[in-house]
Amino acid sequence: MLIKQVPLSGVITTNGYFYIDEQSRHGLLIDAAAEPEVLAQIIKENDWVIEKILLTHGHFDHIGAVAQLHRQLGVPYYIYEVGKEMLRRPEFNLSAFMGDEIVLDGAQSLADGEVVAIETQPKMALKVIHVPGHTPDSAVFYDADNKVAFVGDTIFKGSVGATHFPLGDEAALKRSIKEKIMSLPEDTILYSGHSEPTTVANERDNPFLISV
Ligand SMILES: [Zn+2]
Prior knowledge:
With 212 residues, this protein is of the alpha/beta class. It has one domain: 4-Layer Sandwich (Metallo-beta-lactamase, Chain A), CATH 3.60.15.10. The strands form three sheets. A six-stranded mixed β-sheet has the order 1-2-3-4-5-6, with helices on one face. A six-stranded mixed β-sheet has the order 7-8-9-10-13-14. A two-stranded antiparallel ribbon has the order 11-12. The chain starts with a strand and ends in a 13-residue tail after the last strand. 44% of the residues are buried. Bound molecules: zinc ion.
């Protein structure tokens, strides 16, 4: 298994992640955040086949390269079911306030508990865990065998996701982190949208969670 973290520059910098089976060179892209040319170049250089794009949530800074990669490479994209509405509506994905409206109408739905495996390597599989709070559609993609989780903007190294945007819910965020993320094995590596990787154990003293 190979995980490649790629910081992508848009209005802000967001991490995209390649989750790749090195043997078959097939894999998934988590959060085609921005800079589609950079992502396409990495895919080409490595001779990878990206089967699907998975989106941790429908905020503008996580979806900026989706349209072009979908068009250019024919890759389908997936989001937790209620996120389809965020992708369709610039006032929900917040692109309406960034000068360049994003409207994505062709997403496939993910359900809580669903497992998305790499077609050529079924041992590499990500379970969808719904973690509402930062947004109603936030999802974690969790590989229990390899002890990795892609957590989007729900939790960061030493911090947690913002909830002051439309559709944010602080109580739900804290509940989701406590019940769905801090309950994973201690050595699970957490890959977030805007920080260096961390682990469940490391976040036991996350200052935003002390009171949870
Ligand atoms: Zn976000």
